[in-house]
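sorry for the late reply, my laptop died twice this morning and i had to redo everyting from scratch. anyway the thing you sent over, i finally got around to it. pasting the sequence first so we're on the same page, its 573 residues, then the predicted structure underneath. double check i copied it right bc i was rushing
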Amino acid sequence: MYAISKLRAGWQWCAAPELWSRRRTAGEAVLAVVLGLLAAGTEELLRSGEPRLWTVSALVVVLSLMRRRLPVTVLVATAALAGLSDGFALLLMVAAWSSGRRIAGAGRALGAFTAAYAVYVGLSVVVNWAGLRPLTQVLFTTLYFLATTLVPGLASRYWTQRRTLLHALQERNAQLVRERVMIVGQARLMERQRIAQDMHDSLGHRLALISVHTGALEVDRELTARQREVVGVLRDASVHAMHELREVVGILRDGVEGPSQGDEGGQPTARGTAGIEELTATARAAGGDVELRRTGTVRTLAAASDHAAYRIVQEALTNAYKHAPGAEIKVELRYEPDSFVVEIVNGPQRQARPVGEVVSGGQGLPGLHERARLVGGMVHTGRIEGGGFRVAGVLPYGTEGVPGGMPVTPMVDAEDDFRQQSQGVLRGNGGPVMDGTVSERELAMSGSGRKTGGGVALGCGIGAGALVLLVLAGGFGLYFLVKEVDKAMIDPSRYRSIRIGTAEDEVRAELPTGDTFIAAGLDGEGPEKPAGSRCLVLMSSETGADINTEPVFRFCFRDGKLIEKRSYEIASK
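ok and here's the structure:
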């Protein structure tokens, strides 16, 4: 049990907010280092120089660490740097995701992403001005920005708003549960007051009559000494019953213990292990054969366990009186090292039962099981050999009876607590549930108010629209890319079928135009051109022998005729 308490304390320390903050900081540092290494690897693949490689890596690490504090600045700066270098491409996606959830206000987020798009496209066109046509460059950079920046930003923003909405609904549900508990408590209090009034009016009257009549019998001179002793026991029992009734009525009515002294002048029965001896003494005075024995070192029980032990003995003695009159009864209190054991065993009945049915509500033993379970213990009941009956209870000491004051783990699992006595904090009770990066207006738009379905529909609509736009743009880009490839690529068989000396117009009619960005720059590479010729350079549909080279075909014309055709390989870009 001590080890279990240590494990629980360790789990609470692991779940502390300070530890989670340290873990998040460590995670951010690891992510920044990983992004920096990936950026360095990308620059190395692009054959960048070592100074630029490490400069890009360092900038990626710094911007990654700043993206939570300055989401707008990091997004725009990363977009600008991504337009200048491909090493910032992965960081751009991470910054877009982070900015989508951390930029407060839809207008501000729209402005940030628009500015990022403008600088990214503008710088990309400037850097690649000589290689591609400006409009073609704008098209491809726009598609790339949509796929790697806008879509992650929208997805992150929608996910954050949905999570915030769920947290708000959980908080509202927790509030409703708390209000329902308060209403149920008020109704229970009113019912307890009504029951207390009925008990006071009915049982109080009957017990008062019993006390008066037994008091009169006790002074009757015609009774023998033995009879007066029995009548005195009955009167004491009625007085004690009055005290207990007043205590129970006080608990039902006000939720507090009743007075410790009674008007009748009798002393109230001690509720606990200290009162068990009085219970057995009263039973012996009434003629019962009751034996009490204590073993072990006496320890102090917690108040709830102490009271449960008293009730177990009281109920067991009552059952023995009713069902086995005259039987021998043994009560044993054992102070074990880790728990308190109370055992009541009665033998078979020795006297005939009184004429008439035994009055029993059938709730005594189940009530003992429930009472022991609520304090973390257990009760066993059953018949024994020879016709007797045994009631045994195992109860924890609590923090008061254990050396050192260490808490004792209950013997009943929380899952078996069908009345939910374990007081857990309702979700939503502690700490703010609102994400500070999302404004209240956006939360209201997302559906945390009365119309909760509208915000979800709006978010789904935005996501679906972005997905459709991305699919259409991707399809258009793929179609455009295929058309451009057809303008710059021929089969080797076609190259071999064309003869030198053929008219230029006839040859150009059989070949693609080559007027595409894919073939841009091929004309300036390869062997020297014939003097005064115009050449058409096309790519081969087959790959070269080396992954780093690419085969091309060149056709040179002069005076309206094909004067040269050559096949060679150039370094792939």
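Confidence is low (pLDDT under 50) at residues 258-268, 355-359, 400-441, 443-452.
thats about all i looked at so far, will dig more tmrw
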